[in-house]
Write a sequence for this structure.
């Protein structure tokens, strides 16, 4: 089992930046990849980006490419989402999630952190 705790959300204006962190604990040796998802009110959960735990391969949704950056610090067991040039449509609850080795789905999730971008 892996435990995840997100932090760093808040209320910002359009064009501002925010940095989200996900603290990872538990059986980190079982992790294949970490990802960020988001869910806006009335909308389905949306993939934001992911990073493989060992190789550091990174993937982004088209909607955030060029604005968001994912990074990881394996020594500190944290994954960070740097969000720049924020837009009102980025408003959502942001979740980090774990994909275990040998799995295709993300099984472990954090509690989420609210990001609100005002226009």
């Amino acid at each position: 089992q892996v435990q995840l705790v997100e932090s760093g959300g808040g209320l910002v204006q359009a064009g501002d930046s925010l940095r989200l962190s996900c603290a990872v604990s538990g059986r980190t040796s079982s992790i294949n990849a970490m990802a960020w998802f988001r869910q806006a009110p009335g909308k389905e959960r949306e993939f934001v980006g992911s990073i493989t735990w060992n190789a550091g391969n990174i993937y982004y949704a088209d909607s955030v490419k060029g604005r968001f950056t994912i990074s990881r610090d394996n020594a500190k067991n944290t994954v960070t989402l740097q969000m720049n040039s924020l837009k009102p449509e980025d408003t959502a609850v942001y979740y980090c999630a774990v994909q275990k080795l040998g799995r295709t789905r993300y099984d472990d999730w954090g509690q989420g952190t609210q990001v609100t971008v005002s226009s």
User: Anything to note?
Assistant: DSSP finds no helices and eleven strands in the chain. The CA atoms of residues 54 and 79 lie 12 Å apart. The chain has a mean pLDDT of 95. The two ends are 40 Å apart (CA to CA).
